[in-house]
Amino acid sequence: MNRISTTAAIIGGGLIGCASALFLRRMGIETLIIERGNCGACASGVNFGGVRRQGRARAQLPLAMRAHEIWSELPAWIGTDGEYMRSGHLKLARSLSDLQALADYRDRVSDFDLGLQILEGAAFRRRYPEFGPGVIGGSLCPEDGQANPRLVAPAFARAAQSLGARLLAHTRIMEAAPRAGGFALRTEQGTCIHADFVVNAAGAWGHDIARLFDEDLPQTPGYPTMAVTEPLPCLLGVSLGVEGGGFYARQVERGNVVMGGGFGESVDHDLRARPGRAPMQRIAEQAGEILPALRHAHLIRFWSGVEGYTPDKQPYLGPSTKHSGLIHAFGFSGAGFQISPAAGEAVAQLLAHGSAPLLDAAFSPGRHTTAATNAKS
Ligand SMILES: Cc1cc2nc3c(=O)[nH]c(=O)nc-3n(C[C@H](O)[C@H](O)[C@H](O)COP(=O)(O)OP(=O)(O)OC[C@H]3O[C@@H](n4cnc5c(N)ncnc54)[C@H](O)[C@@H]3O)c2cc1C
């Protein structure tokens, strides 16, 4: 039987696991990533590519602001810019109450340097003539943007490896248990891994890993539906969302418009996902309503991915309340792409120093248990 020892074992080679590995290696901590398939092949590599702070809950903004800095220095961290562009993120309003909600959000987060601008009426139309008559305004975050997840996610894995992180790809963790002075993990192939620390970065499967440690961290899988058009002339300069959700779009430099909205369905018991028929139709309809130039565009591909959603849409990002040395980092609820570099840095700080300055109590893995206990007493 194979035996491996390491200081830090990271379960899951998505962006969260690989960013954690990168920061751990920069601190000189021995690190092993264990990934069931290929690094970045799940949510981290198939997502929409929105790199936005606008719309996030306040608790996430300190991490999102730190991530914003890291994104701007991406080539220095991972050797590629990942097609990252600060195109701006425009959240559209289709009613007066949407506009009010956008203005309320701007006021609630005014102590963060997001530079949100509410645009409406003639000024909005002059600046954005491309939108249909149902769109009456929007909130622009000029420095938010977009990137190509297919480039970014594997690049984090390569960067961590080039700094000395070891990778066991195509290796699934089947069993885990605390042992004196650390943890014992067993892979599907029978390899035993002893680690002083374990990071649970298993994404939509993070609750399964938590259960191996006898922890119940509720999470539900969801399968965002994505679509892309043929290459088109330039028609959309910003990354787009709508107040209330349900549709988002961005145009890449090659001309394709990437869009998303609604949820698909599970395949192979949540190992994979496929886009749903109704959301596919709804994306096409909304695209034509919001951006009339897309009415006759050909949609050349649809896809989906598996993402883990927590009950309050905040990640589990912090130390286990049961086992010292176990850190949970999953449940990013549809918004983990932008924040992942800072989440990885926070994981490394927690592991090395026992605390991470940008982590909020709202991310505590014990919050649901504590709330249930308080409700009973
Ligand atoms: C279609 C889609 C669109 C999205 N759009 C955006 C967006 O525009 N902006 C944004 O900020 N976020 C977006 N997200 C969310 C974002 O992609 C995720 O929050 C983020 O990638 C989560 O990263 P992760 O590393 O936690 O998970 P993952 O990338 O899923 O990685 C988890 C890894 O753990 C591995 N694993 C699981 N179980 C085991 C095991 N037992 N042993 C070993 N390995 C295991 C898996 O194989 C997987 O590779 C989107 C998500 C999806 C699915």
Automatic annotation (TrEMBL):
GO terms for cellular component: cytoplasm. Transmembrane segments: none annotated. Keywords: Oxidoreductase. The keyword Isomerase does not apply. Residues 9-350 form the FAD dependent oxidoreductase domain. Signal peptide: none annotated. Gene3D superfamilies: D-Amino Acid Oxidase, subunit A, domain 2 (3.30.9.10), FAD/NAD(P)-binding domain (3.50.50.60). InterPro entries: FAD-dep_OxRdtase (IPR006076), FAD/NAD-bd_sf (IPR036188). GO terms for molecular function: oxidoreductase activity. It holds the Pfam family DAO. This is Sarcosine oxidase subunit beta.
